[in-house]
Amino acid sequence: MSFFNVLDILGTIAFAISGALSAMNRKLDLFGIFIIAFVTSIGGGTIRDVLIGNTPVSWMENTINLYLIGCVTIVAIIFRNKLDYLKKSLFLFDTIGLGVFTIIGVETGIMAGLEPIVSIALGAMTGCFGGVLRDILCNEIPVIFRKEIYATASIAGGVCFMVLYTLNITQNSIYIITTLLIISIRLLVVKYKVSLPSFTVQK
Amino acid sequence: MSFFNVLDILGTIAFAISGALSAMNRKLDLFGIFIIAFVTSIGGGTIRDVLIGNTPVSWMENTINLYLIGCVTIVAIIFRNKLDYLKKSLFLFDTIGLGVFTIIGVETGIMAGLEPIVSIALGAMTGCFGGVLRDILCNEIPVIFRKEIYATASIAGGVCFMVLYTLNITQNSIYIITTLLIISIRLLVVKYKVSLPSFTVQK
Amino acid sequence: MSFFNVLDILGTIAFAISGALSAMNRKLDLFGIFIIAFVTSIGGGTIRDVLIGNTPVSWMENTINLYLIGCVTIVAIIFRNKLDYLKKSLFLFDTIGLGVFTIIGVETGIMAGLEPIVSIALGAMTGCFGGVLRDILCNEIPVIFRKEIYATASIAGGVCFMVLYTLNITQNSIYIITTLLIISIRLLVVKYKVSLPSFTVQK
């Protein structure tokens, strides 16, 4: 198992916990908690696979993640009142997840022979759309459309990946630089409370 | 036409009526009522087909259900104030629909050579996700995430189906036992007002 | 570039602007505005492609539209307070878009050898479901389920297209008649404030 796999697992765990927490905050029942945890964790990759025709989608062929998410959700339910102490670790895991999932999405696009702009879009989808589905199912406007430079970090990472890929740099260097870039953007953004502008239409 | 087809038709009818009723309760217009009826009835199977790559999706190849749903919706609109008298029959039809759709989903997964856990997930999707789409389109948190042992009955049925299938029991016996199990769970749950626990996060 | 392509571009522009406006009205940030503009413009065609298995979906193979939507969105943000003056042109563009997208959807169904009723449904999806996704992402009940004869105009156009197609009329005549029909219905409906009935269920 490579270092990249370890990061992938950390990301999957963080996304599952974020889904389970959202569901508990909305007072969903046990089944709802599991579904939201799954959807948050594998939803982005599923949308990507469906759009490019990579079916049956990944989680059906590689079911180990399902068991992982199931266990994580049980742990998250048991320790639901302790998760606040882990806030910082969870934020870091989530950001790692964003980085890893973005890379997996961009690579999938390149493998499928799609144009760079499409590959970057696939990276952002893989990284961000699990959270979009989570928010839709919880009947909220997706948080990434409202605040935080989250998707923007993913897109910046995707652009960085494509540039480095064109320069023929070794795969491992691309992985590391892209992941570090996404993590740095997220950390800086949260530290300095940067957010994208929104625009008001005068009535 | 087999006995199973008859059950399938009853389920499709019940799901269409439940969709049409939801739409009328939300004061949607005629078009909205039809769309929600269709989505509730064929939405679960459509998501299943898209995820495993079974395209064009089933309702495009087998359009008889579209006409059936259209007619049922018209009848539901005309008799909208009488449907209360049919509440018990509708509940039974809906539960039959859940059972039949679950079985169709699990079988589709087995045919596609997918792992047992994935087949069970496909069964639950086929049975429950039409209702999830209905609730999302009506701007509500899906009811199956909040109360009632609905999806859980479907999952229990899926597990039962897989176990019996492994034991090499005849297809008809599997169908009957699985459907009866799902119906029994639903009836018991509603009678004794059982619901899954939800968990509060202390702030 | 044919006359039809010009209409397609007008439609894409109108849909992108309508998405960007919705997003700004909901106070979404810059990223949210772009995503909603994209989804409104290409969402209907994407759902169509996914359901019939035409993957990778159209916008991945024909990326020119992505750049067009991106530019239109920037212009819409800059001139957001001037768009009111363009209300009538935008309404016309939007209606042209509905007509063109409907035709593209119906034709896609015919090419894929699907039944007429399915082709008409694909036309309505291509024309209307971008707006449905826009409203779901903005956490609203889709406007086309609640008021305005919008989807109905699309369906009428689809039926008209299928009838003319069966009569072996030249492609250009079919395009023009169908588009004119859809535009006329929309104009008449808005002028005379016609709307589909909704039905109340007595409690």
TrEMBL record, chains A, B, C:
Topology of the protein relative to the lipid bilayer: Multi-pass membrane protein
Top-rank taxon: Bacteria
Keyword Transmembrane: yes
InterPro entries: Gly_transporter
Subcellular location: Cell membrane
Stated family: Belongs to the UPF0126 family.
Listed transmembrane segments: 6-23, 30-47, 59-79, 91-111, 117-137, 149-167, 173-189
A GO CC annotation given for this chain: plasma membrane
Keyword vocabulary terms for this entry: Cell membrane, Membrane, Transmembrane, Transmembrane helix
Lineage: Bacteria, Pseudomonadati, Bacteroidota, Flavobacteriia, Flavobacteriales
Domain Glycine transporter: 6-79, 92-165
Protein name: Glycine transporter domain-containing protein
Taxonomic source organism: Aquimarina aggregata
Pfam families: Gly_transporter (PF03458)
